[in-house]
Every structure is written in C-alpha cells, then in structure tokens.
Amino acid sequence: MKVEVRLFARYREAAGRDRVELELPEDGTVETAWAAVTERYPALLPYRPHTLFAVGQEYVNAEHRLRAGDELCLFPPVSGGAGGHDLYRLGSEPLSQAAATAAVAHPEAGGLVVFSGVVRNETGGRRVKFLEYEAHEPMAEAKMREIGRAVHARWSGVKAVAILQRLGRLEIGEASVLIAVSAAHRAEAFEACRYAIDRLKETVPVWKKEHFEDGDVWVGLQSECDHRR
C-alpha cells in the first residue's frame, strides 16, 4: 500500500524534503513507516525518542496500523523549538509514554515525572478479563484542561502537563491513563503529577466496565484509580 509521510521543522531540514511517498506492506504500522523513512534519511535516526506521530488530525503511537492513502506526519514537540507544551487527549489508541514525555520535555526542566495507570488482572479477589472505558468526551477534555491550568497556577516551576486517557476496550497490562509533568525541580514535578491524577479521578467524567469471569460491573473513575494502585 502507498502512504505519504510529511516532515516538519528540523525533520524537513535533515531530510532535505517535506514529503516522502512509501510503499508499505498491508499490515504496515507507524513504526514500519519510520523504519522506511530513516533507511532513506539516516540523519533522522537521533530524533526517534522525541518524535510525535499524527495521522489526520490525531496523534497516534508507533503501533498504529496504517491504511492505504494515509498521510503520516512526523514532527518534534510543537512549541517553536523551546520544548514543553500541554497536551490533553482522550482516544481509543494505545497510550504512548514516549509521546507524552516528548510533549512536556523542556530545556529548563530539571524533573520530568510520568504516571501510568495500568490495568491489573484482579480486583477484590475477582479475576479481571478486560476493561471498557467510556467518557463524556467534550466535558472530560475540558476538565483535563482545568486540571492543567490549576497545576500551572499552584506550581510556578511547572513547564508543561500532559493528560492522556484511553477509551474503549483495554486488556490486562495496558495503560488506561498517562500523566506527564515537567518542572524546574523534581519536587514540583512529583507533587504536580500526584495532584493531577488525584484531581482527574475526582472530576473527569470517565467510567469503566470491569469484565470478570463471572459477570461485569460499571465502576466510576474514583474506584478505578484505587483499583490501579
């Protein structure tokens, strides 16, 4: 299948062009495309830890499966080169710690903390098969942004905040939420990250349905976060 890759900022300069057309296998992923691009333009290889991927108008992770005709965008954190921007997103794609870290990375940050809430295989002694997440998405994103504004107001040293929530079906071991915070000092980063996840479970309208071997039950986000711990 044919896929077009667009390159931005320093990626465009390193490759000497802004578009690359690739021929990929039918099961090709974003990572497959990255490998094909860097085989042609090895100068891009050092940028991999900080690269953000997008298809259409949405960020995706490296495991995202591409389709014929997709336009894949490769770019560094979108902050005018200074590093560090807030990111709030809900979606059904697997969460990427690398993308969250890259989003909040900042040259003035001495600490960067990431919290990953992972689905466990049991709760209350009952074996969990899988989970399903649902949200009032517009309100949930608005509440996430409120949390970010509160973090910046309380800790002046915070450079950037990322809050990512997974929706849909999640298997055991998958991340359901990511919180990333960069700050001038590690204490601020730890405190702000803890505050953000606590506020998220209290105010953001997200629910999960736990599927057990002997039935299922809807649970609010408060209990869900307790379950992850």
Describe the secondary structure blueprint for this structure.
Elements: E1 2-7, H1 9-15, E2 19-23, H2 30-40, E3 52-55, E4 58-60, E5 71-75, E6 87-91, H3 97-104, E7 111-118, E8 122-123, E9 126-135, H4 137-154, E10 158-166, E11 168-170, E12 175-183, H5 186-203, E13 206-212, E14 215-220, H6 221-228
Parallel strand pairs: 1-5, 6-10
Antiparallel strand pairs: 1-2, 3-4, 3-5, 7-12, 8-9, 9-11, 9-13, 10-12, 13-14
Helix pairs in contact: 4-5, 5-6
Give an account of the 3D structure.
The protein is α+β, with helices and mostly antiparallel strands. It folds into 2 domains: 74 residues, Beta-grasp domain (Ubiquitin-like (UB roll), Roll); 142 residues, Molybdopterin biosynthesis MoaE subunit (Aldehyde Oxidoreductase, domain 3), CATH 3.90.1170.40. 31% of the residues lie in helices and 36% in strands. The chain has 6 helices and 14 strands. A 5-stranded mixed β-sheet has the order 2-1-5-3-4. Strands 8, 9, 11, 13 and 14 form a 5-stranded antiparallel β-sheet that branches.
Summarize the structure.
The chain is α+β, with helices and mostly antiparallel strands and 229 residues long.
